[in-house]
Description:
Structural class: alpha+beta
CATH class of the largest domain: Alpha Beta
Order of helices and strands: HHHHHHEHEHEEHEEEHHHEE
CATH topology of the largest domain: YojJ-like (1
CATH superfamily of the largest domain: DNA integrity scanning protein, DisA, N-terminal domain
Number of strands: 9
Amino acid sequence: xxxxxIELLGWDKILDPLDVLDILLLWFVVYQVLLLIRxxxxxxxxxxMIAVIFLWVATAPxxxxxxxxxxxxxxxxxxxxxxALIVLFQSPIRQTLAHFGRYPFGKFRSVxxxxxLIEEIALAATAMGSRRIGALIVLxxxxxxxxYIETGIEMDAVVSYxxxxxxxxxxxxxxxGAVIISNGRIQAASCFLPxxxxxxxxxxxxxxxxxxxxxxxxxxxxVIVVSEERGSVSVAMDGALHQDLDTRSTQAFLEQNxxxxxxxxxxxxxxxxxxxxxNTKESGSKNAVETARP
Length: 294
């Protein structure tokens, strides 16, 4: 009875395991490609290609605007366009193929690699603080930071303690501005960040701190700022500035807010010894710029 009903409705073809596998694999590939091209210039290129295809169809004989010359030129553009796209996007294509190649094992290594990345960043930030080297390190989360990446010098480099120290060393070409980290790599250095216009921010904060707070107010990014004058390390998130962090508390803060679980005894060891937070703004302001003091 059930078999007859399935055949009558045509579900026997839909429930074919090979067809289901075919659909799932196609969905997986398309989804991964969309993840890789989001927040990049490839999206604008795709929109441009769609516009060219629409114009090519619209100018065909018998359609809306039968323009023979325009239709002929657009036809050649569509014919050789894919080759131009391959040349323009050869680097993203290589990264895409490498991503697919390592994907079966990426899930097992992702947590460890992110923890190592956070450790490198925390160590570099506290080391620069001890040397009174100013720094701005931005960690992208959900909101894309492509607009800010394009204001700096693109790098696409592995995050490491030594590289971060060298980038922010005074009188080097890239020391002025922010480093933006996305997808586990340094995407760009010497980037410009928007300054916060909140009038209640304490005047003890300079341009770096205002830039860190400003970006954290406009996006969900986490911004690590190292004060050149005081040598302190602070972290801005959601418009709040958490101050005077050491290596361990910085690492714990990043791991918690980047979704990395730590053993319960270690996760908050850097925070439990602190007395809490006080507001650095005037009492009338409800925007939190918090300080955590030992």
